[in-house]
Amino acid sequence: MNASTTNFFEAIGAPVVDIARAWGSMFGCGLRTLRAIAMARIAWREVIHQSYLIGNRSVPFITVTLGFLGMISVYQVAMQIKQIIPDFTMLGPAFIQIMIREFAPTITGLMIATRVGSGIAAEIGSMTVTEQVDALRMCNADPIVYLIVPRAIACMVMVLMLSIYAVLVSTISGMLMANGAFDINMRTFLSLQLTNGDDIVIGAVKALAYGFSIPIIAGNAGLTTSGGSEGVGWATTRAVVSTSFAVVVLDFLISAAGYIFT
Amino acid sequence: MIEFIDIHKRFGSNVVLDGVSITVDTGQVLYIIGASGAGKSVLVKHLIGLLRPDSGRIILDGEDITWLDEEGFYPIRRKCAMVFQNSTLFDSMTLLENVMLPLRKHHKMGRKEAAKAARAKLELVNMDRDADQYPAAIGDGLRKRVAIARALTLDPQFVIFDEPTTGLDPMAAATVDDLIRSLRSDAGVTCVVVSHDLRSIFTVADRIAMIYKGKIRLDGTPEQFRNSDDGVIHQFVNGLPEGPMSV
Ligand SMILES: Nc1ncnc2c1ncn2[C@@H]1O[C@H](COP(=O)(O)OP(=O)(O)OP(=O)(O)O)[C@@H](O)[C@H]1O
Ligand SMILES: [Mg+2]
To answer: Looking at ligand 1, which atom is closest to the CA of residue B39?
Structure first.
């Protein structure tokens, strides 16, 4: 093989190897987290502290976003319906179903991915470059158990709770818009006739899947940081991009599984 | 005895160690020198399993520790302590609690007992008066001293110091030098010291090894370093701005 073909294979191969390695370290991190949880190696005080931080950081954010989302989508859809058949009875039930099944968990997941994912990557990344993670390991403290597990549990619980909250906020704001702008009866709007158990299960599975993958991906980005404070910046950016991407991919996969199996 | 045998380590395309072999005899103080980014910290972290080599072997007291798993390194980290370059303390704990941590984690010691032992170590570095302060409240130099105290809490047989005198004033630096000397002479501790501090290097070292471009450039006594006619070594030990190492 001459030099230029070697270069060619190197140019193709190096990014592939890098990507494979990044996926490997991410899945390794996820597996070690699951194992630590299974072995009940959980620092509950830290879980509560992290839950508080995640919730506290996100409630105002989600109230505003989901509130507007509820109003805007109801307005848009109602305008369309009005032009065809002015019958609004199914608007509320369909709105509530799609919120539970799709929008509340996924928008919440995306918000947590950016807001909390970046925070986790920056915090753990700066612990890594200042050798605090090494110092933990010197004290026999597994960084997965001390840093990742509490965040994973807290984030799963909080994304689920925030998704429920997001359904409530968007439904109320949607209902007020329906009532105010289109004179739709609140009782008619607030109906679960299209929502069944499957929708709730799918929504909950999505919330839990996002809640688990965000801290794993962001935490792993933090733990593999190198190169000083510049490295922390890179890790944070990488974490936001990959966690948001993961939310979208998981949304697709779980929705597809939902349609196939129900 | 510590043996590094033909250690290779790269990060992506950045080859940091390209076949490094060093032996440190028991009770010896070895200084590792080299320019910034030469791979000094990377090398010493291999000894306690914080980094794994791509190839090569690491032998500690006759035991091959190269491929131990994370839990296999727990006992190694008990007898081989490290003072990190960033004088890493945990911000959420007081200085005393920081020094107590290894006792509580490795020896599962009770709170009272650990506090007593930790206070004694803080006295060793003249930091006992500030025991209840938080790391954020004290300066960099003082943090470094507490980090040293924490490394010594388990009475290790081996201590790695990563730039222990950088950022200290000359008196504090001399205190650290004395501490290293007395560790060797009183407790027979084997020390590996990463340093740029020429004065400490030539007053404390039994042996010096210089890393340059991923390899050991020279491994010898302070005398050999002073008298070397190798341009790279001459430039480093005399702190000259011009020479083969200049970029
Ligand atoms: N975890 C890591 N991931 C990727 N690269 C790393 C990692 N740790 C170190 N490096 C790289 O290895 C090289 C050597 O780093 P090292 O910290 O050992 O230098 P050093 O000799 O200790 O220098 P200094 O005197 O500045 O501390 C640097 O180029 C650094 O960027
Ligand atoms: Mg270093």
So the answer is: 18
